[in-house]
Specification:
The chain has 157 residues and is an alpha+beta fold. It is built from 3 helices and 5 strands. About 8% of the residues have low confidence.
C-alpha cells in the first residue's frame, strides 16, 4: 500500500482488476462512516465470541477452515480500525481491490465473504453442525439402521 496512490489506480488484467487505494471509515459499501468505533467494538465482540465459544466446538475440517477465514477477516479489518489513522477504534480500513461494477474491497473482506458462504453451505446445504454432526432432514433417506422414522436423529457425519 506504500506505493499505491489514491488518485492513481493501477489497472491489471485488462481492467478486470484495478488496484485503487481507499481509506474506508465505514462498513460494507462505506455505510456508517460516522460510527467507526461501533464497528471496531463489534469486531472485538465477534472475534471474542468466535474464539471463546465456537473454536472449541469445531469438529469438522471444513468448519475449521470457515471459522479460520472468519477470524482472519475480522482480525484483518479490526487491525486497521485499531492501528491506522485517525486513531484507536477510529482507524480507516484500507480497501484496494476493485472489480468492474463492484465497490472497492480488501483481502479481509474476501475472507469474511468466503467464510459466510462456507458456513451457509455447511449448515444449510450439507446439514453439518460445527461439531461435525450431521442433521438428518425430513424427507431425507435414513441411514438404513432401522431408525428411519426418527427424522430428528443426529448422525455423525
Amino acid at each position: 500500500m506504500t506505493h499505491l496512490e489514491p488518485l492513481a489506480p493501477v489497472r491489471l488484467l485488462g481492467g478486470l482488476l484495478t488496484l485503487r487505494l481507499i481509506r474506508n471509515p465505514g462498513a460494507a459499501f462505506s455505510q456508517g462512516q460516522r460510527f467507526t468505533y461501533v464497528f471496531a467494538i463489534a469486531a472485538i465482540a465477534v472475534l471474542s465470541f468466535v474464539i471463546i465459544k465456537l473454536v472449541p466446538r469445531i469438529g469438522h475440517p471444513a468448519w475449521a477452515v470457515a471459522i479460520g477465514l472468519l477470524c482472519a477477516g475480522v482480525a484483518g479489518n479490526l487491525t486497521d480500525r485499531l492501528f491506522r489513522p485517525p486513531g484507536v477504534l477510529r482507524g480507516h480500513v484500507i480497501d484496494f481491490l476493485e472489480l468492474p461494477y463492484w465497490p472497492v474491497f480488501n483481502v479481509a473482506d474476501m475472507c469474511i465473504t468466503a467464510a459466510a458462504i462456507m458456513i451457509m453451505f455447511l449448515s444449510v446445504v450439507r446439514g453439518i453442525a460445527i461439531t461435525g454432526q450431521r442433521h438428518v432432514r425430513a424427507g431425507h433417506r435414513g441411514t438404513g439402521d432401522g431408525d428411519d422414522h426418527d427424522r430428528s436423529r443426529i448422525a455423525r457425519g
